[in-house]
Amino acid sequence: MVFFKEVLPNPVGEDAGGEWIKLVNTEEDITSLAGWSIKDASGKTYFLSTSIGGRTELLLEYSVTGITLNNTDETLTLTNSDGNVVDTLTYSQAGDDEIIIADRFIETSVGQDVGAPTLNELAVKGNEKIVSSGELSTVVVALAIAIISSFAVGVFMKKKQEQ
Questions:
Q1: Residues 134-144: pLDDT tens digits?
Q2: Would you list the domain boundaries of the chain?
């Protein structure tokens, strides 16, 4: 089967220069995409005319598709040559340089150390942004350093005044 795997709707810099859609073929055999199409929420449609190898990915840049991906409230539809919807990818918001990963390709890694962020914690999943615990811990450490430093400066200043 061919599915949407990832999209980059909001690259840093000019969107049209960096947006892309990635398809993946999960089958062993090559699949002809002739007559297949990708349509966005606005109705803009790109017709494919290539093939995708077995167990490979196909990166479709904006310069190829001409599809401008919305940064918010987007739905992409992949339709085969018979007109049947094969896959859809929907997301509600994409931050700067966030890659939207289709839900079916987000897996929790087995055997990770406790506290290590999983792929779910590092990715954007469907309609929700999943924030890594590592990002939060960096903020907490910075805040703790700031508080301790302020306290130390206050103690130093008080002792200086007492002398």
A1: 444 556 666 77
A2: 2-131, 133-163
DSSP for the chain? Answer: -EEEEEEE-S-SS-HHHH-EEEEEE-SSS-EE-TT-EEE-TT--EEE---EE-TT-EEEEEHHHH-----SEEEEEEEE-TTS-EEEEEEEEE--TTPPEE-GGG--PPTTPPTTSPPHHHHSEETTEEPPPHHHHHHHHHHHHHHHHHHHHHHHHHHHHHH-
Name residue 154's amino acid: G
Collect all residues with Cβ–Cβ distance below 8 Å to 19 and sequence separation of at least 6: 7, 8, 9, 10, 11, 61, 62, 67, 68, 69
- CATH fold of the domain at 2-131: Immunoglobulin-like (2.60.40)
Distance (Å, whole) CA 163 – CA 159: 6
pTM over 0.70: no
**Which residue ranges of the chain lie beneath pLDDT 70?**
108-142
Evaluated on CA atoms 81, 83, 87, 89, the torsion sign reads positive
> What number of other Cβ atoms are within 10 A of residue 22's Cβ?
19
Nearest 10 degrees: Cα torsion 16, 93, 75, 5: 80
CA dist 52 and 24 (Å) reads: 8
